[in-house]
Amino acid sequence: MRLLLVEDDNHVAAALSAVLARHGFEVVHARSGEEALHALVPDAAEAFAVVLLDLGLPDQDGFEVCGRIRKLTSTPVIMVTARSDVRSRIHGLNLGADDYVVKPYDTGELLARIHAVSRRTVHGPGEHASEEAAGEDLLRIGAVTIELATRRVSVSGGTVPLTRKEFDLLALLAQRPGVVFRREQIISEVWRTSWEGTGRTLEVHIASLRSKLRMPALIETVRGVGYRLVAPAPAPPAP
């Protein structure tokens, strides 16, 4: 598996590259945002299975680099940074990052996340989730419309841009409105892993979905269990 490591600290990059190499990765090291973008030109972008992106780059902010990467390629991006606040996590995911790992991290954690995002198919895990829809291509939950075939979500007719994981998560919950999905089940279906540390990423994605859809009550937290999508009550008939 070929991986692009975007990290300006040569000592950190060398140590991480050595670890990744022992686990079968071929690592290409970019020391700046421009160097990373040059490596991801359209003809070469698909050669990488994952991009590990540090946010503290010398020439430009990593968030900006992520946004530019998303315009070039759909290659999965994992942000690796010391910024641990939820606002930064949500911002990164909104820009199109597939995951967000906070320094210092456990190497096993990083490897698990790399494998989780790289296991996605061309159409993403949403295709797996939609198998249970028995051929249904359209889901409507109140004002929310989810088009499984085109991976398009709209609220009251207006398109809402979602990242791959956000769409997969929403589509899974929308398959069975009112049914509680356990956290472990969601992580297994959407991230294709049983690794427990993914739970924090799940929380960030839920918060991001609530914010983007502007419907915080649509996804309900069932304390100690998981989440469920709450279908709005139908409007009473006109008198």
Task: Describe the 3D structure.
- With 239 residues, this protein is an alpha/beta fold.
- The protein is 41% helix and 20% strand.
- It is built from 10 helices and 12 strands.
- The chain has helices at 10-22, 33-39, 42-45, 62-72, 86-94, 107-118, 126-130, 164-175, 183-190, 198-213, and strands at 2-6, 26-30, 50-54, 77-81, 99-102, 138-141, 144-147, 152-155, 158-159, 181-182, 219-222, 226-229.
- The strands form 3 sheets. It has a 5-stranded parallel beta sheet with strand order 2-1-3-4-5, sandwiched between helices. A 4-stranded antiparallel beta sheet has the order 6-7-8-9, covered by helices on one side.
- The protein is globular, with a radius of gyration of 19 Å.
- The termini are far apart.
Q: Could you write a compact summary of the structure shown?
A:
With 239 residues, this protein is α/β, with parallel strands linked by helices.
Amino-to-carboxy terminus distance: 64 Å
Strand content: 15-25%
Overall shape: it is globular
* Largest sheet properties: 5 strands, parallel
**Count of DSSP helices?**
10
Strand elements, count: 12
Q: What value does the Rg take, in angstroms?
A: 19 Å
Low-confidence stretches: 121-136
Order of helices and strands: EHEHHEHEHEHHEEEEHEHHEE
Calculate the mean pLDDT score and round it: 83
